[in-house]
Every structure is written in C-alpha cells, then in structure tokens.
Write a structure and sequence with these properties.
Number of helices: 6
Structural class: alpha+beta
Low-confidence stretches: 1-14, 35-40, 253-265
Helix content: 10-25%
Shape: rod-shaped
CATH architecture of the domain at 130-253: 3-Layer(aba) Sandwich
Strand content: 15-25%
Distance between the termini: 196 Å
Oligomer: single chain
Mean pLDDT: 74
CATH superfamily of the domain at 130-253: Mog1/PsbP, alpha/beta/alpha sandwich
Strand order of the largest sheet: 3-4-5-9-8-7-6
CATH topology of the domain at 130-253: Protein Transport Mog1p, Chain A
Largest sheet: 7 strands, antiparallel
Number of strands: 12
C-alpha cells in the first residue's frame, strides 16, 4: 500500500488527543494533518462511509383516562340539550309574535229579563169634584165653585161657566173664533175679543171664551167657559180637567142645528142701538130674539145691526 494513502487513512481514522493545558496557559490548536506531496494514484481506494445509528422512535402518547371521556360525553349531551332548548324557545317566541286570524263566532244573545212594573195608582184631580147633570149633558167642576141656576162661577181664577140647554142658542157677536178641535164626542171652539164698545163692554179688555158643543155647526146644547187672558194658564188647566169628565146625553150627541126659518115667517124688531141683548142668562123671549133665525133676519132687515151683546 502507498505510504501516503496509509497516512491519509490513519489520519482520517485517528482523532488527535487533546493535551490538557495548564490553567494559566491558552489551549493549543490541534495539529494539522500533513500534506503529502506525492500525487495520488489513478485508481484510489474508496473511502469507507461512517455508519449512522438511527434515532429511537418517539414514545407513545399517554392514554386518556376513562373519567375524562365521560366528562366530555356529558358536556356534549348538555350542550346538545341546551341547543335544542334554545332553538325551541326561539320558535315558540316567534310563533307567539305571529298574529292569529280572528275567527268570527256567533254568540247567542242572552234573553233580557222582563221586569214587571206595577204602575202606581195616581189619584184623579177630579176625584172630589162636584157633578152637574141635566137632560142634555153632564160634567164635574171644583168643589169651591158656586152654582146658581145654569151659571157656575169661580172667583180665583175668575171663571164663568154657563150651561146652554137644547132649546137655547150660544151667541158671542163680540168675539172671533181662533181655533176648533173636533172629537168623536164633542167639538171645542175658542174665541177672543175683537170688538170694543158699550155693547161689548165686560170690564175685561182681554176676555177669552170656549164653547163645547155636539157638532161643528151646532149652537146648543153645550157650555160657554169664559175667563181672562191674564189667568189663562190656571183657567186652561181647569178647563182641561173639566173636559175629561164632560159628556153629552145620547140624544144630544146626535143633535143637529135647527134650520133657520124664512125671515117672513117670524116678525122681529131691529135693535135700537144695533146690538141684541143676548147675555148668557136669558128669558124665553131673549132666547127667541137671539136664535139663529133671528140673527139671519137682523142681518137682512136691519141696516144698523152690529151683532149680539154677550
């Protein structure tokens, strides 16, 4: 073998042994290999490769304990339950916010109980009134009024009520009719004063008069109810109450006005002052002079005739 090759081989295989240096001296550098000046042969021997020892495998991971696995599974189950519960809560909350359609239902009305009300009896205002009765009519009047023949009078309020029999006639030439009311049983006519003068003087500048007669064209039988306009409210109330008790006898209710006779059939005398005295209380002669037939004769034959004084 070539001594240079051997030298290289021995140089590569042997490591220099370091010499411990004294504490006060610096370590010496290892000796450098000698360089051979001899050229290598054309076919040198291969250099052996040092064998590398493989690293040991890593140790296996430690095995997990069974208790840890149980806790993990329990946590997964709890998380699942909480997740499902939360989703259910959101769904229920959403459903509650959705407005439900209103379904019309027919409700059966409850029957209203009928209360039986017993009317309280009211005393009639005419319960203690007096009664006037004749062959033609009847009615009631207050107990403090005075009766004198066919005249019934009151001082408060001041009222004159005159009963006109069937063989007499109602006249009031000094008054004007202002209204009429017709019922099945009677007719009511209302009058006011329109004429002034000596013949129509009554002491009351505003007299009022009401007739109650069987029919619209009748002048008897009936009543004449006179009062003053200053006491119209009280007098009107009394007349309304009196009228609720008024009634004609059956024969009088169907009475018709007496037809006027021909002026030439009876002789009358024209009144000297133009007025015929027809006050409510009349004698048979005055009744004839104040009849419908007589009035028609006066209007035709008496140029100065002005009417009847009531």
């Amino acid at each position: 073998m070539d001594p240079s090759a051997q030298g290289q081989s021995s140089t590569q295989g042997a490591q220099p042994t370091p010499t411990p240096a004294p504490q006060t001296e610096q370590p010496q550098a290892p000796p450098q290999p000698e360089t051979s000046s001899v050229q290598a042969e054309p076919n040198p021997q291969p250099v052996p490769t040092p064998v590398t020892t493989p690293a040991p495998p890593p140790p296996p991971p430690p095995k997990k304990s069974g208790h840890n696995l149980l806790f993990v599974m329990l946590g997964v189950v709890i998380a699942f339950i909480l997740g499902v519960g939360f989703d259910k809560y959101k769904i229920v909350s959403y459903i509650k916010r959705i407005p439900l359609p209103k379904i019309a239902t027919k409700s059966t009305p409850k029957p209203t109980p009928i209360l039986k009300v017993t009317p309280t009896p009211v005393a009639s205002p005419t319960a203690n009134w007096k009664t006037y009765t004749s062959t033609d009519l009847s009615f009631q009047y207050p107990p403090n009024w005075t009766l004198d023949g066919s005249l019934i009078a009151s001082t408060s309020p001041k009222i004159r009520l005159v009963v006109i029999p069937k063989n007499s006639t109602l006249m009031n030439e000094c008054m004007q009719q202002v209204g009429a009311m017709t019922t099945v049983s009677y007719v009511v006519k209302k009058f006011i004063r329109v004429t002034t003068g000596e013949a129509c003087a009554t002491g009351d500048p505003n007299p009022r008069e009401i007739w109650v007669i069987p029919s619209i064209n009748a002048y008897s039988p009936g009543i004449s109810f006179s009062y003053s306009a200053t006491e119209a409210t009280q007098a009107g109330q009394l007349f309304t109450e009196l009228l609720t008790t008024f009634k004609f006898a059956p024969a009088s209710g169907s009475a018709t006005p007496t037809p006027a006779a021909s002026p030439s059939a009876t002789k009358y005398t024209c009144p000297t002052n133009g007025y015929v005295d027809c006050m409510p209380v009349m004698t048979p002669e005055k009744q004839a002079a104040c009849s419908t037939e007589a009035m028609a004769w006066y209007k035709i034959n008496c140029p100065t005739f002005k009417g009847a004084a009531m």
